[in-house]
Amino acid sequence: MDQDAAHPRVPKLLFAIYLRGSSRRSESSQHQSSVCNYLAALRAVTFTRWAVMKSSLLLALLLLSRFPLHAQSFSSTQYPLPIAGTSGGTTVERADLNSDGRPDLFFTAFGHGKVGVLLNQGNGTFAAPVSTFVPGVRAAKVADFNNDHKLDMVACVSQTSQNFELQIWLGDGNGHFVKAGMQVSDQCTPLAAGDFNGDGNFDVVTRVWQTTGNVITVHTGNGKGGFASDIVSSNLGSTTGSNPGQVCRFGSLTPGDFNRDRKVDLFTPEDCSAIFGFTGGLAILTNDGSGHFSYKRVANESAIFNTAVRDVNQDGWLDILVNNESEPGEPRQFLDQVRLYLRQSDGSYLPTTFYARAYSEQKPFNLSAMDAIDLDGDGLKDIVMLESDFSETETNIIVAHTLHIFYPSNNNYTAFKNTPRIPIDLAASLVEWADFDRDGRADLVLTGLDKATSSFATEVALNTDDNAPTCSVVSTPVPTIALCKPPIKEEGTITTPGSVLANISLERPVTLVKVYVDGVNKFTGYEDLVNKPLDFSQGPHQITVVAWNKSGATGASANFIVNGRTPACEPSIADHAVKICTPTDSSTPSGPVRILAAISDPGKIAARVYVDGVSVLLTTNKQIDFSKSLAAGKHRLTIRAWDASLNFSSTINFEVKAMVIFQ
After folding, report:
1. CB-count exposure of residue 183 (10 Å: 0-12, 13-18, 19+)
2. Distance between CA atoms of 365 and 499, rounded to whole angstroms?
3. Whole-angstrom Cα distance, residue 98 to residue 437?
């Protein structure tokens, strides 16, 4: 029996206190503990003197640089969730439930038999929650299971600890769900949704742990709101840990294309200890395209509390954020750390520990959920984490809840220009992001207990930072991309190193984003808000942003000119020479072909550019830089120059490949 399925736990709340004498188990960002137990413990616990503990030691791992401080600003609104009491728990995720291009909120209240939706009203405010009763719901995810362009729901339901059902509930596009006829029995938590066998229909994947290995089952969708068949991958995992001969337990399942082969893989944290979870790991389950998975551990870890998967440094590879706990030295001395694992091109992951706190015996702080998103608009993704601290007076225990933001000063995340902790009123355990008001600035949503009412609530914090650039998009059922940087006007001119800023509004979830400069792919991402620094060379350029979802591709383009930069093509040392820098001889460019050349001559010149013997440009400039649309196939480029006494030229051959981007 999978113990996680038999004994579900609510999400680990930010203020939860961990005493060394109590048992604890971890399972990434969905680590759960009883809120009721917390409330009872909070009344009974008496803290020892903090001075004796030498606790809350903030290690010198922040590597702060000398930068001006930046004050992040938000405008927050709290929305109570229709969940009575503090037993059980809730999860909240962003999803466009009514296909209007605006991110809504979907919540699951396990322990309360409810799922629900808060619909975005268009300006970042939300209507009252719409609830659906799903008795015995343990977990739920949204996806379009019947291909009607309306998000449905898969729910793991259990009325007892022995019997489980995996149920599909069809969405009506207004936040309500109706149970479909198809359902299967399974130990179904954790679960995830995605097209794992590549047939165009959403499937559901679940994990069952056994001592001989983890079993990953893909319940293939039939595209009509039901299931077709099961694809099983057995005996997955590693025996590394404190229980030799027992395979480590997989935790939550996060879908993503981790090797960029356009197949949906899975990430999972591993728990290798049955006691305190001080040994574990990070694993990638690679999909062969048919729904079968192979296992690879990419990093050894200690006790894992929370994980998040994002392309943090925007290089097109999915990275991993982790916070954990270890007992590195003397007994009863503990260390909590936050690590970023950056995915390398060879498939390995490079770890950087950028924050840590130590304590002994009793824990006076808690590190909770994390995410990565560019809040200040500088083109570098910031890391946000929920963090709390506990202190005592003679009569009370005081809990301070904060949002800890790490603003990086480089793309390797080895230094940070500012790391403020912003006080929050909500005792939040979950953090997500979306551009809720569609102004091009990333907003946050926090979920947890409202301390004033002791009931669950979600708080939407709209980003009001004046330093962050805006890029508004009109959300409609018609797919739209707002391309705000570089200038969208034809032949807009920029004089400094630039960036691409785009806001994408699609009627179905974004699965892939690509940015092309002069027909060359310069950026690959997976989110509907793009802010990526790009170094444009001198001269004219064309930029194209293409976003894909299950319905196909949508694109937007703009032309612009870069002036005031160092010439991108240095002339030859010899006089009376034509140097062609782009395209190179025998190259195979795609899209509009950039023709970049430099002419070296001590006097005044004139020059003519020929493509396949046809003149396409006459100029007196010694720097030639322009783009030309050419048919697919082989071409010959000749640039001939002359001055008062000599003629000289250079010729190269190249072949244009069709730019296939809408796939």
Report:
1. middle
2. 39
3. 16
